[in-house]
Design goal:
The protein is of the alpha/beta class. The protein is about 45% helix and about 20% strand.
Amino acid sequence: MSEKVLPKQCGSGKALAMLVFLFPLVYRSEEAAFAGAFHQLSAECGGYIFALGSVARHTIGNFVFYGSKFRQGTLARLFSRIWTQVLLPVLVLRGQPKPDAIVSYDPYASGLAGVLLKWAWGSRLVVEINGDYHETEPSDSGLKKWVMRRVMDLSLRNADAVKVLNKSQEQYVRTRYPGARVFNFHNFIASDYLKGLDTFQGDYYLSIGYPFKLKGMDIVIKAFAQVAERHPTIKLRIMGYCPENELSYYRDLAHQSPRVEFIKPAWMAEVGEQLRGCYALVHAARSEAMGRVQLEAMACKKPIITSRTNGGKECVKDGVTGLHCAINDVQALADKMEVLLSDPERARSMGQAGFDRLERLYSTQQYFSSFMGMLRMLNQTTTS
């Protein structure tokens, strides 16, 4: 079952050998938005990826992806996760040198799996925080909430490095876990693919995200209703997964207007198709640690209206690459949408400024350099 992955040499000449990545769920591992990161990392290292997903096994550059079917039911999901993120890695890597590092996508189930593998192998553990978990509750259930908080604490206390996405997360980790090594940089974005698209200033606002409530789609719809009265040609497209019974609520909220279109979630090619022709991206999230879609919009030279989430405030420079508005404020969002519609040239210049900002701060090379720099610092800490 195992497949040998040969160590690669990093820029300093020190072999980083192999990495093990743990993901909770990967719907399509060959997609550019996912696989692109591992093709890039393959320039200097190799390893394994374990996740729940639809593909059982395939290679991505110097990495081997192992997926296990996502099952319905609490107990079935629990056993699937234990198998995929703990037992399967131990079986696959049996007889091989221990991984240099384990990278867990979150501090919850994947983080706990990372801790168990760290104890088993003696490898270094990197725990990523890809949501503002310090500000939002992990569950509505009291018992589940308590368990998840304890697991998060265990994961972060055992992490050799914690990767965060914004300053608020960084401050939280440094305050609560004073000895933690914290690295603050963005996640991989398939910006090279998106930059190659032929973009134009279309006649619709675009909002993308899941779940709809967290992403503030109700705020977007209400704000658009005000703008639509004064601009009869502008439209709104909302893209993302939403259960049918919940979607009916949003359709009713939009008064079944033909100018408000709901688009099912899709892969990068379709996301790019929607982004390349929108007038601007509207991101009214109630919580956002980074805002992947905001960086994707910047790659397509689109201005962005964002709520003042931690990610929105850091990704979008207010008045330069887009506009900020208060969270949950329908009127403020409508006003910002009006500002962009009233000045198409300013909207275009903001889109270009966003593209330039992406190139400076959030490029694929920036991600690669930051990630490899984190691993090198961990390696120096271990050997010193």
